[in-house]
Amino acid sequence: MKRKNDHGFPDRQAIVAFIKAHPGKVGTRDIAREFGLKNADRIELKRILRELADDGTIKKKRHTVSEPDSLPTTLVADITGRDSDGELIASPSEWDEVESGEPPKILITMPRRPKPGTAAGVGDRALLRVEPTNENEGPAYRGHIIKVFDKTKSRILGVFRSLPEGGGRLVPVDKKSADRELNIAAADTRGAQDGDLVSVDIVRTRSFGLASGRVKEKLGSVKSEKAISLIAIYAHDIPLQFSSAAEREAEAAEPANLRGREDWRDVPLVTIDPPDAKDHDDAVHAQADPDPNNKGGFIVDVAIADVSFYVQPGTALDRAALDRGNSVYFPDRVVPMLPERISNNLCSLVPGEPRGALAVRMIIAPDGRKRSHSFHRILMRSAAKLSYAQAQAAIDGRPDDTTGPLLDPILRPLYAAYACVKRARDERDPLNLDLPERKILLKSDGTVDRVVVPERLDAHKLIEEFMILANVAAAEMLEKKSLPLIYRVHDEPTLEKVHALSEFLQTLDVPFAKSGALRPALFNRVLAQLEGHDHFPLVSEVVLRAQAQAEYSSENYGHFGLNLRRYAHFTSPIRRYADLVVHRALVRALGLGEGALPDSETAESLGEVAAHISLTERRAMKAERETVDRLIAHHLADRIGSTFQGRVSGVTRAGLFVKLSETGADGLIPIRSLGTEYFNYDESRHALIGTRSGTMYQLGDVVDIRLIEAAPIAGALRFELLSSSSETSPRDRRRPGPQRRPSFKAHPGRSPDKKRKPSKPKPGKKGKGKNKGKSKGKKGKAW
């Protein structure tokens, strides 16, 4: 029986009971339908749900609600052990213990005859389908294995160092294990030479002394040109070689022709990419709309390489692409999602060559809003291949031999259309965190030449905005056709992170008044009022860390950063599997021929794909970041004792992380090197504060430092502090007020990882409890 209060509205207990009875997530529409609520009742329902979320009774995520800290029906988990009956136990791979406490346990249910790829053991990472057990004792969830990702971590990657007496030592490449070497007996080296990158199986561990290992595979010399990226590739199990079946399919592929396609070869589409781009999978064209009813509007065409024509569901190429999930980009190489025959040849929109493409034609109103769109399977011929700087130079009055003839007929209409859509973009007011991105330029021998920050041009923004429009059009079309798809979603910041940001801004006397729904404009106002101020880099970093991470999902909860209700990735199927799925769905929805999404694909099955490719995306980001760290550490290894200027990019109980102004490299200033007094870690201020002097070292401070150690293999740098803006800043640094964190003594020779005794409270002051804060890692912007 559905309980209602005196006003005919369901009471809170009934709403909560309904949510608990439907594990996973339900929307407000589901609740309204269950209790027969009219449209006029929605405001009251939303108010009740907001109150339930605020007091922790339920968890609200955009347009869906669930039990607090309940797990989604599909997730990635780590198998951590066995119970007393020998059954496998897992925990979610991503779980914030600071916000949600201990991660829930998942009991793995194994069938008598596991399917290929689903046999698992302790230490494996797997994609699970989970459901609550609804039992008072034992794990709260039961899980069924869909796919196993990583095998047990008994194998370690490292650099072999030979010993005079025979055998050698393994120096692990992982930063966390860099100081835990393995002993390799002479009989177990398999001919490894000093400096070889090897994978080693652990064969024996000891309570005291070094563990022992056996060389399993030699991967080449660490001194070779491409060894640095090779470390990340093997450390993160990124597939490097394609199967012979996938290679055969790629070689056998025939170029697209006009069969089943519209002929767009006379449309002067152009590609605009970085100068060193190897593949060109998107082309654009714009013209003024001749329709008198849309005077001042534009027609914008975005054509994307038709990868779905060549990579069809269930083939070896498809399996290889799904396994990779995405291409991975290193300074010295690319590990592609698809073989070169597909990515750099048949699907590269090179000038003058006929190429198959999936195109969207968008009608833009004078105010920059999209009025309508249509999708077309076409045969096109690119009119030109341009770089961003080349296109921008032509618009700025410096055309070259290539851009001169294109200036009036092609480039000026493109920029005019961009100026138009920018009006709608500015009105939408997406999150304006345009942080500089550094690029490493290498010498011919693979070592670092220099690090540059490419200038952000209108040409970059033009392509980005047209791609966003195309992605929105794809999501809208598939929703209209009621087809399942993979969304690109970005959740709004949690209430805890917003509250922490508000507390931090209060310490800088920066107003942060949240009223009504959370919108990117709230953060933009804070950034706008601090632009040009000393605090701007600091606040930008903290605002970035408050944001959630974008991901792929078969459920749509919008894209907070872009301030869009629906968004899907459509524009790079050469390098992202999500885009390939969207292409297939469009082909199926519009009856465009070969390569359609199979009828068997459902929202549930695509949810499994989305979880997998979200994982491979994070894997790629981590591998790319670690490779940059190692390259910079190699670059700086011969500059021990040199001084640099940098900015504090992280504050933890271990010390200060600093990003160098010259290269963007990150390194640690251990807390023990800051002086002889105790330091409090103040999480709300993102600062370390001396209890005796009141000296404060805070996120965003400019510091002068000296390099005292570089570990190239681990990609780690260690510095000592010479001077800081905390000593000269006009901010009131020496009166930080009452502290709520424990103190840690900065004492030479003592480990920064061990907790120190809290400083004795002064008379009349109450001592504080243990530090419950956790150091926060950097979070990349992956929208």
From TrEMBL:
InterPro entries referenced in this protein's UniProt entry, alphabetically: CSD2, NA-bd_OB-fold, RNase_II/R, RNase_II/R_CS, RNase_II/RNase_R, RNase_R, RNR_Ribonuclease, S1_domain
Keywords recorded for this protein, A-Z: Cytoplasm, Exonuclease, Hydrolase, Nuclease, RNA-binding
Substrates-to-products reaction catalysed: Exonucleolytic cleavage in the 3'- to 5'-direction to yield nucleoside 5'-phosphates
Biased composition (Basic residues): 732-783
Cellular component, GO annotation: cytosol
Task of the protein: 3'-5' exoribonuclease that releases 5'-nucleoside monophosphates and is involved in maturation of structured RNAs.
Protein's UniProt name: Ribonuclease R
Species: Bradyrhizobium zhengyangense
Gene name linked to the record: rnr
